[in-house]
Amino acid sequence: MSNYTMDCRIGCGACCIAPSISSALPGMANGKPAGVRCLHLTRDNRCKLFGKPERPDVCNKLQPSEDMCGRSAQEAFIRLASLERATTPSR
Ligand code: SF4
Ligand code: SF4
């Protein structure tokens, strides 16, 4: 599978819901658990903080890629959920 970078699919929002985010987000001091919508995701799955200084670094640095995003939001959810499982330390 290729991992070339691509443009974010506007209105996808999968990476703002599926993965856990461990760094603080404005209004979510402890980040967010996997599967929970970020507070800043609009109903049409856009980031309300896009382009604003308070948008977290972790979001600014995230590079959309075919490996992560797949070809649809549904594919992205599946890929992100499996990445989440692969990167969650077992207790
Ligand atoms: S999963 Fe990829 S396409 Fe979807 S919102 Fe995130 S970066 Fe954009
Ligand atoms: S701040 Fe924006 S880009 Fe970051 S997780 Fe929330 S909605 Fe997504």
Written overview of the protein:
By secondary structure, the protein is an all-alpha fold. Helix content is 26%, strand content 0%. It is built from 3 helices and no strands. The structure holds iron/sulfur cluster (2 copies).
- The backbone outline, from C-alpha atoms, is globular
State the secondary-structure class: mainly alpha
- Quickly count the helices: 3
Major sheet characteristics: none
Q: Secondary-structure element sequence?
A: HHH
Q: What small ligands are held by the chains?
A: iron/sulfur cluster
* Whole-number mean pLDDT: 93
Rg measurement, Å: 13 Å
Give the percentage of residues in beta strands: under 5%
N-end to C-end Cα span: 31 Å
The residue fraction in helices comes out at: 25-40%
β-strand number: 0
Low-confidence stretches: none
Please give the structural blueprint.
Layout: H1 57-61, H2 66-69, H3 73-87
Bound molecules: iron/sulfur cluster (2 copies).
Keyword list:
91 residues; mainly alpha; 0% strand; binds iron/sulfur cluster
Would you summarize the structure shown here?
The chain is built from three helices and no strands. The chain has helices at 57-61, 66-69, 73-87. One iron/sulfur cluster (SF4) binds next to helix 2.
